[in-house]
Amino acid sequence: MNTTSFDTTQVSPGLLGFLVVAAIGFALYLLIKSMNKQISKIQVPHEADLEREEKAAKQGAAEKTGGKPGGPDAKK
């Protein structure tokens, strides 16, 4: 008879399972921290800046044509 038997419903992952999950959690924390650092470096123009650039481009185009809609670059 086998005297060293165990109940298969009471088996748990133990220390190794905990360490693996803890390592994955720590790696996730570092990845999210790095991602936030990289995203904060991205410079997104504000809508007011975009509108200002569009107006400047329109004014520059109007100055090239002399302010007339039928300037030298106008299509016929």
Question: What would your notes on this structure say?
Answer:
The protein is mostly helical and 76 residues long. The protein is built from two helices and no strands. The protein has helices at residues 14-41, 47-64. It is rod-shaped, with a radius of gyration of 33 Å. The model has no long low-confidence stretch (mean pLDDT 83).
Give a short synopsis of this structure:
With 76 residues, the chain is mainly alpha-helical.
Give the overall pLDDT as a whole number. 83
Annotation, overall tally of beta strands: 0
Please tell me what the overall shape is: rod-shaped
The largest pleated sheet is described as: none
Radius of gyration: 33 Å
Question: What are the segments in which pLDDT stays under 50 over at least 5 consecutive residues?
Answer: none
Distance between the ends: 103 Å
Helix share of residues? 55-70%
Coarse structural class: mainly alpha
Give the amount of beta strand, in percent. Answer: under 5%
User: How many helical elements?
Assistant: 2
Elements, N to C (H/E): HH
